[in-house]
Amino acid sequence: MTDAAEQTQSQQPKVPVLGGLVPYLTVGGAVKAAEFYKRAFGAEQAFMYPADEQDRTMHIHLYINGSSLMLCDAYPEHGHALEKPQAFTLQLLVDDIDAWWKRAADAGAEVVMPLEVMFWGDRWGQLRDPFGVIWSMNAPVKK
Fold this sequence. Notes:
There is one protein chain. This protein has 143 residues and is an alpha/beta fold. Helices cover 22% and strands 33% of the residues. The chain has helices spanning 3-11, 30-41, 97-107; strands at 24-27, 44-48, 60-64, 67-73, 90-93, 110-117, 122-128, 134-140. It has a four-stranded mixed beta sheet, covered by helices on one side. A four-stranded mixed beta sheet has the order 5-8-7-6, with helices on one face. A hairpin with a 5-residue loop joins strand 7 (122-128) and strand 8. The protein is globular and about 50 Å long. The termini are far apart.
């Protein structure tokens, strides 16, 4: 390990990771994505490596709805090219689905499947964020 890497690691704060499974997204514009997730999903930033001269960051750690979400930019020059998000969905289990849905849509998330009562008895819908990631929301039907 290089002296610079050791120094960076020793300066990184110990931020708790929340949840047993933590998605780590590579997006085009991680700083902008984090700002969007703050507006759309009430994300709180736990940690971020400073952006480089191309406005890319190698790590952002967010808290959303009691769980951690981590993201970074693509670095194709280091073998980490940007791939279009596919074949996965991030699902938020929420109590007040109408408030969560409205906040995300108002922030600019595109409705893919509108909220409706599903065959399993919960209200559910899907949105796509400006970075191509699909987010589902699920909540019990209130009686």
